Amino acid sequence: MSLTEGVRIKVPASTANLGPGFDTLGMALSLYAWIEMRENDHTAFHLHGEEMKGVPEDKSNLIYKVAQMVFEEAGVTVPELAISMYSEIPLTRGLGSSASAIVGALSAANAMIGSPLPDAKLFDMATGLEKHPDNVGASLFGGFIAAVWDGSHADYIRIAPPANLETLVVIPDFQLSTAKAREALPKAVSLEDAVYNISRSSLLTAALFSGRLDSIHAAMRDRIHQPYRAGLVPGMAEILEEAPNRGALGIALSGAGPTLIAFVERGDNRIEGLRSYLIETMKAKGFSASTLMLRPDSDGVTVLDCDRSISFMDMIRGEVTT
């Protein structure tokens, strides 16, 4: 593939932590961003969609900067790029918008120059930028990810999603930065709370691997981050306790929030009641919210056919079905 042809990629959103697996467990979701990248005589940006408003359109843009990291690592010089992007993933809502941008930029730039960097290297680079492997691992590899990071290298195991598992996410109509959410966390936790989380994280990983949906409720509980962040998301503490009584297999803060994600079994006739409960609880706390039914994404980042006879946005229109 020549540089001038460029590439188009599709990268999924993600959720992280899943309750007890703080900075360790992640899952890819069926909400996407698309990026087109090609060499150009001058750097230009074409950013589409509501989620792209306010994103820089110069060389301070994250996509551009990450692409240059790939080129430098591969010993290639491509200083000027034409970058197009469209995203369904809401910013600063706990659905991995920054991780998807990082993974998308790494994958697009690597594919553009013939994919000299292996996925393991891209994962290390992505984790180094994000500082934790859960979101980027999920967006890169798809499915569920259990991962560790030692400061320079990330190891992971991917788990295929159980066939009947779906998610219902409730997205409050306000943003919550990861930095603010991390400021709410304690500097240390008790041995009792550490054991509580380790045991449930282990149970959740085993439940997902074996498809034991009945074990998810007990496994998704947490003591090391959600209790401290509950004050940042009105209604969260109540929802975490009550949603499992209304059809949720388990429920957790999605990443740093404010989105909450409920695991549900496909076809459960309680899902619509659960949806109404989530919306009404947020409304009672003074916030509007929206909900989405999302499937686990099994593919991770995907390089698409770059047919230049079809415009980038026409390609997107053919992809988006919701």
Q: Could you please describe the fold and organization of this structure?
A:
- This protein is α+β, with helices and mostly antiparallel strands and 322 residues long.
- The chain folds into two domains: 3-160 and 297-319, Ribosomal Protein S5, domain 2 (2-Layer Sandwich); 165-294, 2-Layer Sandwich (Alpha-Beta Plaits).
- Helix content is 35%, strand content 24%.
- The chain contains eleven helices and eleven strands.
- It has helices at 62-74, 97-112, 119-130, 134-141, 178-183, 191-210, 216-219, 226-229, 236-242, 271-284, 312-319; strands spanning 7-16, 25-39, 44-48, 81-87, 144-149, 154-159, 165-172, 250-253, 260-265, 289-294, 302-304.
- Strands 1, 2, 3, 4, 5, 6 and 11 form a seven-stranded mixed β-sheet that branches.
- The longest helix has 20 residues, at 191-210.
- The two termini are 32 Å apart.
- The mean pLDDT is 92.
